[in-house]
Amino acid sequence: MSGANRIAGAGRLTPARTARFTFDGKTYTALEGDSVASALLANGVHLVGRSFKYHRPRGILSAGAEEPNALLDISRDAARKQPNVRASVQEVFDGMIAQSQNRWPTLAFDIGGINNLFSSFFAAGFYYKTFMWPRAAWKHIYEPIIRHAAGLGVAPTEEDPDHYAGRFAHCDVLVVGGGIAGLSAALAAAEAGAKVILCDEQPEVGGALRFDTSVRIDGVEGYVWAQDVVSKLKAMPNVDVLTRTTAFGYYNHNFIGLAERVTDHLARPARDLPRERLWQVRAKRVILATGAIERHMVFPNNDRPGIMLASAARTYLNHYGVAVGAKIGVYTSHDSAYEAAFDLKKAGVSIAVIVDCRPRPGDAVVAEARALGIEVLPGHSVINTAGKLRISSMTVARNGGGSPRKFAVDALLVSAGWTPSVHLFSQSRGKVKFDADRQRFLPGIYVQDCLSVGACNGTDGLQEAIEESLAAGELVARAAGAAGGGKIVLAGEQAFEWTGGMVGSAEGAGPDTNAKAFVDFQHDVCAKDIRLAVREGMHSIEHIKRFTTNGMASDQGKLSNMHGLAIAAEMLGKDIPQVGLTTFRAPYTPVTYGTLINHSRGGLFDPARKTPIHSWEEAHGALFEDVGNWKRAWFYPRTGETMHQAVNRECTTVRNLAGVFDASTLGKIEVVGPDAAAFLNLIYTNAWDTLKPGRCRYGIMLREDGFVYDDGVVGRLAEDRFHVTTTTGGAPRVLHHMEDYLQTEFPDLKVWLTSTTEQWAVIAVQGPKAREIIEPLIEGIDLSNEAFPHMSVKEGKICGVPTRLFRVSFTGDVGFEINVPADYGQSVWEAVWARAEPLGACAYGTETMHVLRAEKGYIIVGQDTDGTVTPDDAGLSWAVSKKKADFVGIRGLTRPDLVKEGRKQLVGLITKDPKAVLEEGAQIVADPNEPKPMTMLGHVTSSYWSENLGRSIAFALVAGGRERMGKTLYVPMPDKTIAVEVTDMVFFDKEGGRING
Q1: Which of 159, 586, 876, 979 is the most buried (most CB within 10 A)?
Q2: Measuring CA to CA, which residue among 695, 625, 700, 699 is closest to residue 662?
Q3: End-to-end CA distance of the chain
Q4: Could you tell me the pTM of the whole model?
Q5: Residues 129-149: b if buried by 16+ CB within 10 A, e if exposed
């Protein structure tokens, strides 16, 4: 049997297809297609969890993503384990293991339930007023206890063996929601010829048609019509239908994030299938058909297991074939709950009473109730409930007073009306408007190319929603460029027109009572907590939210927000819009890390980029360091050498003979077009229209605030073509920076930008013998000083391979940078090495490169700058054009703070003790004996031992640094204070003759 509460002939599941699962160690039988919630209810299980703060017993409240109570730990095995899964969403699969959370030792007997007895000590905001003393107790008592209590589930400890996938998609129209409105809109857009993606979070489309069996469309039962339409859509080549797929985020430029649950419902998923898939969709137009969410009633002790939303009970009956109780009460302020009672009554379930707090409910539903023999009590309220682990009775009284009546029930269905789901609309930065008549927020001002239709747009009538959706589908399809199709006409019928609804607390939970009337079930926020927050001075809903934590649970306030707003507004004597509305943030429902990360796990989490020469470097003993994502050869130790010894050897070899260095990681951007020079003039501080083809220039790039952003050498290959180099770590952001300005500030310029970082392998040959090493390998380029001086670039061949040869140096010696297509990088390197090794040259790494550049006073952006350094601070004011009228950062450079005296400036430092090597980051002071707190003048940015100079050298940012030349400053360290002298930044070959050798 699949459960004693399963009603024969009811629902849409097939009795012959069963699945077995366990809940808290006990085995149950479900039907294929059951959610965990429906399967537990079929087996008479209502108690599924404990609340966060008071550990009160909690049951299944809803049948959808808004579920706040039934959060379970779902697993296949120890490795495939996921906490906080909503039982109302998770489908049962054979062998599934489900466990309740936030209880000990058992769900029925939870020691944490003692918190409920001391609830007066845990009033809203108690955590802001307690844990203050004794001070030492925070670290050793309070914090450990709070951390242990935080959260509901337990994160898995074993590595996830499943894999996840990601897809990018473009479409004309994305329809979110597969109910009547969404299906109608998708059908109209598809028939018009638009490329359509339809997504819905449920396993099947239909939305409210899953529970509302009274709806007929074109004479067909609503749910059947929905399946027929989706079959038609799936057969169309221009439509993709994604079920079990939640649209969790609406971002800029109609970019929508979708999370698809691919195999979470399968007992034995195929190994090649991902568990979940992230869809990143860019849509020309978006239609939001996200429906509405039923609200609960706020009354004393409204949280007992067995109390649930009326639409949920209707879903469990009409879709899953499950009766949520044997004797059921209904408490409502809205007509829709009556239909739940009608359906249950017709299925043979006893309905004890319908309690309606409205004095005049809808005439049609009251007449139908009485025709079915159901007692209706208008103008009454439920003022209390009883039952320990499940509701056993409810107490009802006439509004305003009167003798209470007690009804024995084992389930209570509640409905305070429906809240339009404007979450995604709000995420799109749209502005909502308030419908005062219906006490609800609706889409107002649209910011992006989207439309809302159906219940989420406040369209209540069935036929009106259908017509609105069909029109919207056709409209957005044509706006996206589709032109085909004819007009679609659909006729909808519903049994009753719904009226009513309320927000805020009901009778018995008003300001004059201290009852526990829950607004937010998961965080145990009661109506009295909202009122307390207002009394404590919280008048903004954002402050009230944080003080009480209302709406901050994993359900993001889907059920609680409107009630909380109404109660706060009542206390403040204001209208709801004056109190404000909390911000709806992505994700709409929780999304697993696996979905978001998808392929980016293990070695792909932080991919290592390797140069074309990496395998040669590895084979020749190089040790590597991480620079951004790149693996760069750090140094090449010989047998028995320490790092210090290897770097000293490499430094002296390069200065005396030559060295070969892999510079392939340098960022490279091709700037092409008739306006290329004009564009670079705007991006860099110096001039580029005067640079002749075949020549290079060092350039500085600023942000708008005037601070150094990046630097590099730029070579002009032709009048309309430049080869731009950037720092290794800066390449992506520099390209983004350029594209941003090109597209937003300078869109009229005819320029194209292309990243070529991985197109070119770069081999730097530096040192006195550099020309001798490469000259025999070069074809078509005269390497003499006269024909090819420093800062030149020419195209030719090396070893028969095309090359862009730069005469540049980052060591201060004669230098060449050989750019060749990446596929030929290692073969050309090997040819160069075959020439270099017999001449005594060495391969050297990044550590040697750093020492050699520091000896010559060359800076590294990001190491010697910190985001607050101007060109003048770095001693590079010569690279800022005095003639240009405009470039990025020109106005920033004139800000008073950037031109005032005493700014930190980049200078050189030499220690009084030549053998003392400073620590990078060490602070610098003028007086080491100054009482604490000492005045810090700056810090060391680069520091090395220079074997060529026989001493240590350093750069530092020092306040008023250039005015302190020759003065002694101090670097306090834990064990000693090091005296330093301020110098210029060039320590080696001050005249600069070697670079032209």
Answers
A1: 876
A2: 625
A3: 93
A4: 0.85
A5: eeeeeeeeeeeeeeeeeeeee
